[in-house]
Specification:
It is a single chain. By secondary structure, the chain is mainly α. The protein folds into 3 domains: about 150 residues, no CATH class; about 70 residues, no CATH class; about 100 residues, Orthogonal Bundle (Cytochrome Bc1 Complex, Chain D, domain 2), CATH 1.10.760.10. The protein contains 12 helices and 4 strands; from the N terminus they run H-H-H-H-H-H-E-E-H-H-H-H-E-H-H-E. The strands form 2 sheets. The protein has a two-stranded antiparallel ribbon with strand order 1-2. Strands 3-4 form a two-stranded antiparallel ribbon. Helix 1 packs parallel to helix 3, helix 2 packs parallel to helix 4 and helix 11 packs across helix 12. It is elongated, with a radius of gyration of 42 Å.
Length: about 375
């Protein structure tokens, strides 16, 4: 019989493993046949991954317990400690699995899985990875101690016979030449000063090279700064930098406006400037006087100079009226003939006619509009 079943703890671990495997298998079956009839492959993949990792943990746990049995003479509590760690890990996994199985039904956001269920399964897999890494580390330590490798390496380090690897050797060289450059402990007597402060003595160690050369760099930077800002005057002070950035921002803004000048509609329209209103007046005389009169006093169409409007008197309303029209009341749509900017200019000119009181003005129509 496997050593795992030779202890009460091993039997408990086996029971937990079987129960959790059944729980995950049940969950996989539910995922494969949801109420809608569609197979959720993401959920199945997560559940299968969790089961495979559980099998890995099971195998590693067996190896750990076998190694622990053999090492029991040197460390009596090792097998017990290892078994308890495995048991606690599986209990945690079981709690997460139960959470995954009882997650409330919510709107699916992760490949058809509810957020709670997805993160529960992801947590199970993450915990399993942690347990595997931990078991791998513990197994390596037990194996090294069991075979005597760890004791041999410690003895070599104590005797100074150990050969450091190329990476460790490179790091030691960099540390001695660049980072610290400190005198070895064995030679500290050679650099010990006669300063004594209540038993605290001082070593005449060299400054760390990284700090010293960093200080040299600040000196060079200071010299460059002085010549750049105070001798030659080629550098910009904060006020000059601010002015330059404002100019650059203005240039970017103008470029953006030039690119988006036609992105105008009834939702973001603003009244045009004087030049735009003048352009709107030209369009009005070309296309609108037949219905609204020479000065907007009205004719076939309504009077545009009073405060009464049939479809609203705000800039947004006027723009919309010109753009889409109201054919049932004789107002055609001008969207196909004028650009958004031209409609904006025309709407701005119509807005400017308010209160001009031209002769022969048509009687008011519609509802009074207040800004």
């Amino acid at each position: 019989m496997s050593p795992l079943f030779n202890s009460t703890i091993g039997k408990k671990v086996a029971v937990f493993f079987v129960l959790f495997t059944i729980a995950f298998a049940t969950r996989a079956q539910e995922a494969a046949a949801p109420s809608g009839g569609n197979i959720n492959w993401l959920e199945i993949l997560l559940v299968i991954t969790a089961i495979v990792l559980l099998l890995v943990i099971w195998g590693m746990g067996q190896i750990m317990l076998v190694l622990g049995k053999r090492l029991n003479a040197k460390r009596k509590d090792l097998a017990k400690t290892t078994s308890i760690m495995i048991l606690l890990g599986l209990i945690s996994l079981g709690t997460q699995a139960q959470t995954a199985g009882t997650a409330p039904a919510t709107i699916a956001n992760y490949g058809g899985i509810s957020p709670g269920e997805f993160w529960a399964l992801a947590s199970v897999i993450a915990i399993e990875f942690v347990v595997i890494v931990f078991l791998g580390y513990m197994g390596r330590s037990v194996y090294r101690e069991l075979t005597g490798i760890a004791d041999l390496e410690i003895a070599k380090l104590d005797s100074g016979e150990a050969k450091s690897g190329s990476l460790a050797k490179l790091w030691r060289q960099l540390d001695e030449k660049i980072f610290t450059r400190a005198v070895p402990v064995e030679q500290e007597e050679d650099v010990l000063l006669d300063h004594d402060y209540d038993g605290i003595k001082e070593l005449d160690n060299a400054l760390p090279p990284w700090w010293k050369y960093g200080f040299y760099i600040t000196i060079v930077a200071a010299v460059i700064y002085v010549f750049n800002f105070h001798v030659f005057g080629t550098g910009k002070n904060p006020e000059q930098e601010y002015a330059a950035e404002m100019e650059e921002g203005k240039r970017i803004e103008e470029a953006y406006k030039a690119k988006t000048k036609n992105l105008v509609d009834e939702n973001n329209i603003t009244i045009a400037d004087a030049a735009g209103i003048a352009e709107g007046q030209k369009i009005f005389k070309q296309s609108c006087i037949a219905c609204h009169g020479q000065n907007g006093e009205g004719g076939i169409g309504p009077n545009l100079t009073d405060v009464y409007w049939m479809h609203g008197g705000s800039m947004n309303d006027i723009y919309k009226t010109i753009k889409i029209g109201y054919p049932d009341k004789g107002m055609q749509s001008w969207e196909a003939m004028f650009s958004p900017v031209q409609i904006k200019d025309l709407a701005s000119f119509v807005k400017s006619l308010k209160g001009t009181n031209p002769a022969n003005a048509k009687a008011s129509q519609g509802d009074e509009f207040k800004e």
